[in-house]
Structure prediction request, 389 residues.
Amino acid sequence: MTGSPLGATDAPAESRRSGTFETLSLRGVGRTFGKTAALKGLDLEIRRGEFIALLGPSGCGKSTALNCLAGLLPLTSGSIWQDETRIDVLPPERRGFGMVFQNYALFPHMSVRKNVAFGLTMRRLPKAETARRTEEAIRLVRLEEHAHKLPGQLSGGQQQRVAIARAIVLEPSLVLMDEPLSNLDAKLRLEMRTEIRRLHQSLGLTTVYVTHDQEEALSLADRLVILRAGTVQQIGTPEELHNRPVNQHVADFMGYRNLIRLTAGERTDDGIRVTGEGLDLVGTHLDDLTPGAAVVAAVRPEDVRLFEPGTTGDNRFPAIVEVVEYQGRELAVEARTESGLRWHLRTSHRLAPGDAVVLGVAVERLLVFRDDTAEAPKNVSVASERESV
Ligand code: ATP
Prediction:
């Protein structure tokens, strides 16, 4: 990829964009629908060039946040600022943002070329410039050979490329994407993911991307915003969220598949003791926990270690392998402890159902959170390690 900005001229890409900014600030942004608070006091600073993913379960307020940013939904509280200018009072067309939706929203009777050119035509740009920018956008999304076709003659992935070209041809200061890959099959999703990241980087875009797919968010974004029931749970880089989720809900979203309800014991030199379900483990905690508190211990499958049967030691416990799934080089394994707890782990060892094993977790890899599931709203699923036994 050349890295040349769209419709390259001598001017840097940023200076030709509508409403370029250094920082876009969401301050206490809220939106209610009747009695439903879809989004509560969202504070977020987006820096130019960043790729931000809004991540969370269905109904957590991701699309609401995006639509507030786009100007499609008026705020019920808070404000949005582009540097020193307040923009939440502006209609969508005056914000200069590009949008890409999951359903593509292409004009079915127009060719790819006309779909991409549409926004420029509406802005009454000179014909030659419209043509040049349109061809450049089509080239960037690699649709040169399909430019004359109608959307109905394209695959889902190609249609999504048209939608992306249509957004970037306007050289927007911010691109908003709402689950743009959710209608595509697994292979295309991966391809388009790379494509989106490539375009973001080569065009120097600023992107806000809504998804409920953790892997997609982690692989694309510079920073992630984890939402739950309209409230921000944590904002951070993929690495920060991956290594240090602040609560069980973020952990759940970050792939900590083993979420085990236990009881806090006393502090130890290196962490806190947690017991229950026949287990006596030591983990790492961020929350202030008193002995007897209900806690959730969170462990990622790749952090569960495997030992020979009969091995003893701290933070180790026996289990029997129940389910083995082949996943390339590694196996995804489910093993059950004596008390009936199911543990998820990944290993390159060839295991088979019925094998006796000893599982272990390092203290720093076992994160202990205060259990706040009792406070969880009904529409939020909290993963449980304990499936029906
Ligand atoms: P999904 O991943 O399913 O699209 P989401 O995280 O994008 O979900 P939103 O669409 O932002 O969630 O919805 C947040 C909450 O606001 C939900 O409880 C939803 O039912 C409610 N909501 C959204 N739009 C409206 C509306 N127009 N009228 C009433 N309630 C709404």
The two ends are 53 Å apart (CA to CA). Residues 13-243 form a domain with the Rossmann fold fold (CATH 3.40.50.300).
